[in-house]
Amino acid sequence: MSQLTLFRLLLTYEWWHFRAARGLVLLTGLLLATGLYGIYYGTTEIERQRQHLATLPELTHHNVAELQQKFPDSADAGEIGYYHTTYAAHHPDAWAALSLGQRDVNPYYVKLRLLGLQAQLYATDNVNPVKSLSGNFDLAFVLVYLLPLLIIALSFNLLSSEREQGLLPLLLAQPVRPALLVGAKLAFRMGVVLGLAWLLSAIGMGWAGVPLDGRVLLWLVFVTAYALFWFGAVLVVTALQRSSAVNAVALVGTWLLLVVLIPGLLNLGVAAARPVPQGLALTIKQREEIHAGWDRPKAQTMNRFFAHYPQWRDTATIRERFVWRWYYAFQHLGDVSVEPLAAAYARGLQQRFVLVEQLNVLSPAINAQTSLNALAGTDLPTHLQFQSSARAYHDSLRAYYYPFLFRQVPFTHADYAREPTHSFTSQPELPTAYRGLGKLLLTVAGTFALGLVLMRRRAISPR
């Protein structure tokens, strides 16, 4: 009998055994249902965000209509800038539905007025802290954190069950090489798990309406490589030839180590190695600087402002008790006073991300989650890019209003339509994803190499 025929017979045997094990069938079906819920949740959340973002222009239009009714056609631009609200919007990529990433913890829009930027930039809506602690659910979560548990459940007794039932000596007495036996068992389980992962990925991509570009293949390769890593871990544990109970404890311990313990320790270590200023401290300092602006001499405030904007130095000296251009000048100076803190905050977050990316080889789970977020355009660098675009938008608003304020030009109803607008759409961070895939493939190769070496050095014993 040829080795190919034996391989097919062994696969058939594994199929019969799988069908008879109702618990495993139920567990596989449960993961399928969980994956479908993850797809539903992710697509629903992104659709909710899209609908919310779609209302922002209407809210701005409604605000403009109110201002046009409240103020005459030739109004003071200072009053318009104080009451007028507009939005910096972060539109999601279609892939975000499969891997929500930072979109469930960071704001995806910023409500802006002509006032100081920093307090507005870091203002967020109140959220349920319990929900923030548990996080949101998506397909990436199912594939990264739950799929390994299915692999463990299917494979912890790869050979040990036959040994404990006394069937292994009978199998080895047949013209079956131990390597062929282990290979057939692993191949069947890989087929089940990868078929499930690919099916969920295909359903998720279709449901989310992702574009059929190179990211489809990259996602599938990443999911496949991540599953293969866990099968490599199964091969290593199987090669040690322990009991089923010991195998289960070893594999679950590996899952806890790589998915829970190392990520937690890495988070603490990175926070200690790359400290960042607190956002709350930044907003407090800005607020204190703005409040102090009321008590400083106007000439001192304006001279500090003109040092940054000398083109307005020739405007009329302020003699009134209150004038809008002075008010917006010390509002901006409040932002200027915390620029080093704001830059250090963004730089610190970026450095943390870089350090995590360098160290995530210690945990394939972190590597996979980081890479899938990068693929979907929902990682931290994308959020920082959105914040940078919001700052640039606020600068453009100030540049638009300053001629009205400093030249004392009346603001007409027609001027609303010429006001700058903002739009930012996530883009994939493909270099991050490619680096993550490279590290994952090396990890898979190393794990399987270790498993094969152990299998060769420790001959499979029937007892």
TrEMBL record:
Task: Please report the organism this UniProt entry assigns to the protein.
Answer: Hymenobacter arizonensis
The UniProt entry, under InterPro entries, shows: DUF3526
- Domain of life, per UniProt, equals Bacteria
List where the protein spans the membrane. Answer: 20-40, 139-160, 191-210, 216-238, 245-266
Signal peptide start-end: none
| Record keywords, A-Z | Membrane, Transmembrane, Transmembrane helix
Q: Which residues form a coiled coil?
A: none
Name of the protein in its database record? ABC-2 type transport system permease protein
Q: Is the Zinc-finger keyword given for this protein? A: no
